[in-house]
Amino acid sequence: MNKALKLVLMYLFFFIVLLIAGTFLNFFYLNLLNLVIGSKSSVNYVDSLILSFLYASSVLVLVMGPVIIYYRIRHISGIPQLISFILLSVVAWNLLLPSIFKLKNLYIQKYPHSENEKIITKDYFRTSDEKIFYFTDDLSNENNNPVAIVINPNEKESVQIERIENSPHYILYDNASPYSDLLIKNSFPSKLVNERYLSFSSIFIRGEQAFNKGFSYWLGFLSLALVICSVYGLSNFFEWRLMNTTLLLSSTFLILLFNLVYFFPIFSKFKIKYIQSKELFQFLSRFVDDPFLCVINVFTSFIFITIGIVNYFKNRKKI
User: Which residues contact 251 (CB under 8 A, 6 or more apart)?
Assistant: First the structure.
């Protein structure tokens, strides 16, 4: 019982510590995205901080299960510990996460988010598409036709003076995405900013949509929670902690990867041809979003839970 209570306390401790760290990391990231060199920041810091707090809270609901399972690997106990884990997971996914969705919507409705003005500052050299751009004045809404010196090292007449008309899709804006300034983007290694990384945001968007649609759709989304939390059944699979930790990390990674990659455009044709055309999934789609994904999550959960039950009774016999 003491270990079960300690698991609850550690859950709260890790949640608070990681929430503080995650909030400020995301806050820094949001400000970095909106930073323009040579210009005063127009970022609403309170707005960024609140949105970062809500996003970090959502991410923690998603990852706290594996975090506590890792703690459990190092502090193995019996049924009371399992019950504590189940209760914590139920509260997090069914009470905390929907509350975060509601708070976010209320905040956005009360304080509508407005995009920052796009601007390119003067007196800086910016490189894009093998050309170098130098503005003699800021390019902004107030000054929408400044002079720019464009240098193309690959041409004979390498230096040209151009009048640049401000447009939301001007090349220096588009090539800077997701940042606001190309100088910021080019300060990082190209692979780091050009590769398409997986984002948890898509999971939360689907979760919010499912929550708004109704109970059955929300249950379908919770299949993700079930499969993540069912990794608990693998926490005592091996006798070595290191092997159990490796199994935990790899299983969690593959679960999240599948639930994210499943919605990539590359799988659209596969889903249309082999999944959406099946009568079973057409029927299930009346009650849940992405029924095939739900079935895979539930089936995987069943395997993990079965392994956990078998290991439990197997270890009891040894005792």
Answer: 231, 234, 304
